[in-house]
Amino acid sequence: MNTLSRKDFLQHTAMAGAAVLLSNLKTFASATDEKKIKVAVIGCGSVSGVYLPHLSKSPFVELVSVCDIKFDRAEKRAKEFNVPNKFPHIDQLLAGPKFDLMITLTDMQVHGMLNKQALNAGRNVWSEKPMANTYKEGKALLDLAKSKNLRIWGAPAVVNSPQFAFMSKALREGKIGKIAAAHAHYGHTGPTWSAFFYEELGGSLPDLGVYNIATLTGLLGPAKSVVGMTSIVKPERTVDDKGTITVKAEDNAMLLLDHGNGIISHVMSGFNYFDPYGHEGKGQEKPSILIYGSEGNMSLVGYDWAPWGVDMVTKDHEKSQRFLPDPGTYVWQEGASKISEALINGTEPLINVEHALHVLEIIEGTRASQKTGKRIELKSKFKWPVV
After folding, report:
1. Which residue has the higher pLDDT, 22 or 331?
2. Which of 24, 38, 84, 182 is the most buried (most CB within 10 A)?
3. pLDDT-derived band at 283, boundaries 50, 70, 90
């Protein structure tokens, strides 16, 4: 009798699952009459002002509808980007002209609810971060999508950058020896345009820390456990839409991740960090991701959502070298257009929903660690290495 080892069984199962997903994508591609994915955008606030210009230029996207509960914003975006349909509510959006992919750009607190409604209506989903408010809710969304032969993905798209690919390759090739530690940071003095960043289930972790967590787990592998601390440094904020509010979600966070094999990484994020480059990060030329090994170290120059170079020092070359990978067309808001391209071509994108869920579990685990004072074990995993 032939027997499979546990390793062979897991590999066989993973390959079978990947084959099913790829088959679903190819089926979708063959069923698409036109070489464009029909897209609807829900949430016409500040982020849509970056997404819509990008989507409107994508050869893989046809913008069908926009939607916002503040209908004047939907009307403005529809006119600005020549979108034929506009709606004030998701119910009307889903009942309106047919589309294939919903892009969720609303307040983060309602992402899970809206994504579930879209899946139940037979739509694929690309969601800005986070794709849900808890890991349990996010996993239920993935299970729902699979049951309906649909797909859901979650931002960020940091694994798409050429700099991420360069660093991943260097680590796999052992350029800096055995990895020991890593650090990542991202912060500024906080958004002023909306209260949701500071309300329950908002916070610096799902808004800012999410990028660094995605990058470090993407480079070093899924985390096995997390220890975290969070705090509120500024208990009151003044924001454009609600005036002075009481801050309910963390505006300062630090966490340690155990990636196994002795590797520990650190992430810090917050809304109280003075940054001369501001929220937009224009002109940022300093390292924001640092990885240390037994024979060298490597750092990402610029923010991981807008990188432009990699610095490396090794035993063989002790003077720092700066590498500038071909930037290609990468931009942080490209996730939905890359998903549309994958749906058209029947290919599997680098962006992986299980990775987004893992990041979400880490965020939730950080908050649980702060509450309990304990290390939080993590259950989720994703296909790794990413590149």
Report:
1. 331
2. 182
3. confident
Q: Clarify whether residues 242 and 359 are in a common domain.
A: yes
Helix (H, G, I), strand (E, B) or coil at 92: helix
Task: Over range 312-316, report the average pLDDT.
Answer: 96
Q: Are residues 256 and 144 in the same domain?
A: no
Q: Strand, helix or coil at 194?
A: coil
Q: Model-level pTM?
A: 0.91
Residue 214's nearest CA partner among 250, 184, 176 is 184
Of 32 and 308, more confident: 308
Does the pLDDT of residue 190 top 50, yes or no?
A: yes
How many angstroms separate the CA atoms of 131 and 108, rounded? 8
Average of pLDDT values for 228-243?
Answer: 98
> Domain limits at 81?
32-154
In a domain, 2, yes or no: no
Number of residues that this document lists for the chain? 387
Q: Are residues 226 and 142 in the same domain?
A: no
Distances (CA, A) of 350 to 37, 112, 155, 156, 165: 19, 22, 12, 11, 11
Q: Which of 95-104, 153-162, 320-329, 335-344 has the lowest mean pLDDT?
A: 320-329
Check residue 271 and report its DSSP letter: S
**Residue at 27 is within a domain:** no
Q: Report the DSSP pairing between strands 225-231 and 243-246.
A: unpaired
d(CA 360, CA 301): 25
* Average pLDDT value for the chain: 92
Q: What distance in Å separates the CA atoms of residue 127 and residue 50, rounded to the nearest whole number?
A: 15
Q: Which residue type does 346 have?
A: G
- Where does residue 386 rank: exposed (0-12), middle (13-18), buried (19+ CB within 10 A)? buried
For tokens 């990188």, what's the residue?
307
Q: What is the largest CA-CA distance in the chain?
A: 72
Beta strand segments in 147-286, E? 152-154, 179-187, 225-231, 236-239, 243-246, 252-260, 263-270
Contact by Cβ (8 Å): 159, 350: yes
266 burial (CB, 10 Å; 0-12 / 13-18 / 19+) is middle
Q: Over 70: is that where the pLDDT of 15 sits?
A: no
Tokens 């908050």 found at: 367
